[in-house]
Amino acid sequence: MSVDAATLEDLGRELGEQIANSPEHEAFVEANEAVETDAEAQELIREFEQLRHEFMLDREAGRADRQSMRELQEAQRRLHNLPVMAQYLDAQEALQDRLGSVNEAISDEIAVDFGGEAGGCCQD
User: Fold this and answer.
1) What does the pLDDT read at residue 111?
2) What is the sign of the dihedral through the CA atoms of 112, 116, 118 and 121?
3) Helices in 1-124 by DSSP H: which ranges?
4) SS (H, E, C) 101-117
5) What pLDDT is recorded for position 87?
6) What is the pLDDT of residues 3-13, one digit of tens each?
7) What is the distance between the alpha carbons of residues 78 and 85, in angstroms, rounded to a whole number?
């Protein structure tokens, strides 16, 4: 029995819709919106991103030191300890786990790592 491309695309859209309606995706969307609208989270994200950017520049130039690494880690700790961010990270992990399970189910059927190798080329 042959399956044409339109049918496969329809199945892909249906899969996408099912993922979008899953509890994991819905929780992730809600958690993401909560982080985006939380002023404290946004300020800590800006602070962390600025420190990370400065650290990366310093590292590339050979100027990074332990103190700047500790400052970056402390900024990340403060950010991750915010309840709204902790909920976001938990929701993100749950969604990634669910998508990993979906990937495994597809990969088992086609004997290729669908989420990894199937989409790319020239991988080691």
Assistant:
1) 82
2) negative
3) 5-20, 23-37, 39-60, 66-81, 83-110
4) HHHHHHHHHHCCCCCCH
5) 98
6) 666 798 999 99
7) 10
Q: Which amino acid is at 11?
A: L
Q: How many CB atoms lie within 10 A of CB 55?
A: 19
pLDDT in tens, 53-89: 999 999 999 999 999 999 999 999 999 999 999 999 9
Of 31, 30, 27, the closest CA to residue 95 belongs to 27
- Domains of the chain plus CATH, in order, are 22-111 (1.20.1500.10)
Do the beta carbons of residue 72 and residue 64 sit within 8 Å? no
Chain segment 28-52, per-residue pLDDT in tens: 999 999 999 999 999 999 999 999 9
Radius of gyration of the chain (CA): 20
Q: Which token pair is 21?
A: 């309606």
